[in-house]
Design goal:
The chain is α/β, with parallel strands linked by helices and 233 residues long. Helices cover 32% and strands 23% of the residues. The strands form two sheets. A six-stranded mixed sheet has the order 3-2-4-5-9-8. It has a three-stranded antiparallel sheet with strand order 1-7-6, covered by helices on one side. Strand 2, helix 3 and strand 3 form a beta-alpha-beta unit. Helix 5 crosses helix 6. It is globular.
Length: 233
C-alpha cells in the first residue's frame, strides 16, 4: 500500500467516512474585446433592456447595477429541456406524433419569452448556449425574438474557433466590460454540443448579422452581432 492510500485509509478510520473531495480549481476570467462595443450601441437616454440567456449570475447583477437597466435571465438550456419534455409527453399520447413542427416550436419559445413581459430588447447575451441547440430550435427562437428586436438591437455570442476544440461546460457572467467570469456547470453536460462555424451562426441567427469576431483563447471566439436592419439587409 502506498503512502497516499495509507493516509486516505487513516482519514477514513478517524472520521468514519470518505475524505472530502478536492475543490475544483477556479476558472480564470475571459478577457472580452467586444463587450464594450455591445454596450456602447444602446442610447443612454432611456432604460436598457437586456436578456441574458444563461442562468442568473451574481457578477452580472452586480455589474448591471451601475446601469439604468432591466435584466432578465432566461436559462436557455432549461427552456430547451422543457420543450423536449413536452415533445416526449406528446409522443406517449399521440401515435403519429414525432416532433414539434417549426410553427409549434416558435409558439413554445414565444410563450417563454412572453413570460418576461419585455416588448423591446436592446442587448441579448447568448454566451455559448446556441451551440447546445439543434438548428431548428435556434431558428424558432429567432422567430420568437424577432418582434422584440429593433434596428439598434445587438448581441454577444461565444463560439468555437476550431471544431476539434475541447469544450468545458460553464456558466458565464459579466464582471465588467472586459471580464467574463466562468463557473463550471453540470446543466450542459447532458446536452449535445454543436460546434457551429461562423457562417452557420450567421445563417441561423436570422435577424442578426455578425459584425466582427475576436479570439478569446482556449479554442473560443467571441462575436459581436448587430440587427440586420442596420446593414440594410
Amino acid at each position: 500500500m502506498g503512502l497516499a492510500q495509507r493516509l486516505s485509509s487513516l482519514v477514513i478510520a478517524l472520521t468514519g467516512g470518505q475524505p472530502d473531495p478536492e475543490p475544483e480549481p477556479v476558472l480564470e476570467d475571459l478577457t472580452s474585446s467586444l463587450m464594450v462595443d455591445v454596450f456602447s450601441q444602446v442610447p443612454a437616454s432611456r432604460q436598457l433592456h437586456l436578456l441574458d440567456f444563461g442562468v442568473a449570475s451574481a457578477a452580472t447583477v452586480n455589474f448591471l447595477n451601475h446601469f439604468n437597466c432591466r435584466v432578465s435571465f432566461l436559462d436557455l438550456l432549461s427552456c430547451h429541456a422543457q420543450i423536449e419534455a413536452a415533445e416526449s409527453e406528446q409522443r406517449e399520447y399521440g401515435e403519429d406524433f414525432v416532433a414539434f413542427s417549426h410553427d409549434q416550436l416558435v409558439a413554445q419559445y414565444t410563450t417563454i419569452l412572453d413570460g418576461f413581459e419585455v416588448e423591446s430588447l436592446d442587448i441579448c447575451l447568448f454566451w455559448d448556449l446556441p451551440n447546445y441547440l439543434p438548428a431548428e430550435h435556434i431558428n424558432a427562437l429567432m422567430m420568437a425574438l424577432a418582434p422584440r428586436l429593433h434596428a439598434h438591437s445587438c448581441a454577444h455570442l461565444i463560439g468555437i474557433y476550431n471544431a476539434h476544440s475541447t469544450v468545458t461546460p460553464v456558466d458565464y457572467g459579466l464582471r465588467d466590460l472586459v471580464s467574463m467570469v466562468q463557473r463550471r456547470t453540470e446543466s450542459a453536460t447532458a446536452q449535445r454540443f454543436h460546434p457551429y462555424r461562423q457562417g452557420e451562426l450567421d445563417n441561423l441567427l436570422t435577424h442578426y448579422k455578425i459584425d466582427r469576431s475576436r479570439l478569446l483563447g482556449k479554442g473560443l471566439v467571441e462575436y459581436l452581432l448587430f440587427h440586420r436592419d442596420r446593414f440594410g439587409d
